[in-house]
Amino acid sequence: MDIRSLRYFIAAYECGSISGASRRCHVAQPSVSTAIQQLEARLGVRLLERHRQGITATEAGHRLYPLAMRLSAELRAIDGLFRTSTPATPVRLGLMRSLGAHRMSRLLKEYVNRVEGLALTLVNPEEPCDARIVRAEERDAREHFQPIWHDDYVIALPAGHPLTLKARLALEDLDGLPFIWRHPCAAMDKLGKALDAAGLSCQVRARLRTIEYAQGLVAAGVGASLVPAWPQILGDRELGCRPLAEDAFHEVIGIAWSEQTPSSALAPLLALAKASWEAADQAGSGASISRPRATAASWERPSP
Predict the structure, then answer these.
(1) Residue 201 CA to its chain's centroid (Å)
(2) Pairing of the two strands 144-158 and 250-257
């Protein structure tokens, strides 16, 4: 069995599209498609269903994925066992809170796999570091910036809550509503200011830091909360997520760095960030929420 075909299959499975796998593997789309078709022919099963929005794994594809991942990891282990050790490449990366464990783990996994001998240290974004993953408005005027994700924010309600019958919510709908408040959170701070300006207030039932904890409390019926429209949140059947009519709660998150020319160790991370941004821009937000379009060029250069 061709390990290259398995690698392309893994990339397509995780990216959800042939084009995404093509960018990750740095090969043309026909090469990815051909390799996966050859793998399907060898196994005698359909692994991926193609459609207009991308691809969806079949039952056979879901069964193959963990086996392919295990084999890929074992091959890397064998390669590392006999390869002459290389000097470690230290990189300090600052991370803001509430980035989302799932997407950050995928990004960091790809980054580690692309840089041989990478010694990655994660720190708070305020500490000395080679680059920082922060909100666009938090970057220093002297820093360059490459966006990665665009986060729209929605009101998460317990499933079956009367407000889920509305397509969009107004600030007035939040007046007196039991609420899970998060801090620090720039979007939540903006919501608080908007409520104060309108003379409205929520009933704060809990104050906490993490999005995942807020998601769990909303599902338990403790109250509503303002959360990012991540796929794992929108797909939670115990929640009903609705956008606010004001449509002002969104933010761009990306990598900020100060050097004019990124180091060879940092460049692969910037390439991954750019690919993620371009893929999201092509696919849309994935939710029924409009968002402004932006190009990487509008963010890359530091302010004069």
Answers:
(1) 31
(2) antiparallel
pLDDT of residue 285 exceeding 50, the answer is: no
Q: How many whole angstroms from its chain centre is CA 20?
A: 14
Task: Mark 5-31 as b/e (b = at least 16 C-beta within 10 Å).
Answer: bbbbbbbbbebbbbbbbbbbbeeeeee
- Could you tell me the pTM of the whole model? 0.66
Q: Six-digit token pair at 205?
A: 């039932």
Q: 10-15: which pairs have CB atoms within 8 A and are 24 or more residues apart?
A: 10/65, 10/68, 10/69, 10/72, 12/36, 12/48, 12/55, 13/48, 13/57, 13/61, 13/65, 14/106, 15/279
Task: State what percent of residues in the chain have pLDDT above 70.
Answer: 89
Domain topology for 154-250: D-Maltodextrin-Binding Protein; domain 2 (3.40.190)
- DSSP for 229-245 reads --HHHHT-TTEEEE-BT
- Give the pLDDT band (50/70/90) at residue 24: confident
Q: Which CATH architecture has domain 3-82?
A: Orthogonal Bundle (1.10)
Each domain of the chain, given as residue ranges in start order, spans 3-82, 89-149+252-300, 154-250
Q: Give the DSSP H/E element, type plus range, for residue 20.
A: helix 18-25
Query: CA 201, CA 192: separation in Å to the nearest integer?
Result: 8
CATH 1.10.1530.10 fits 89-149+252-300, yes or no: no
- Distance CA(113)–CA(94), nearest Å, equals 19
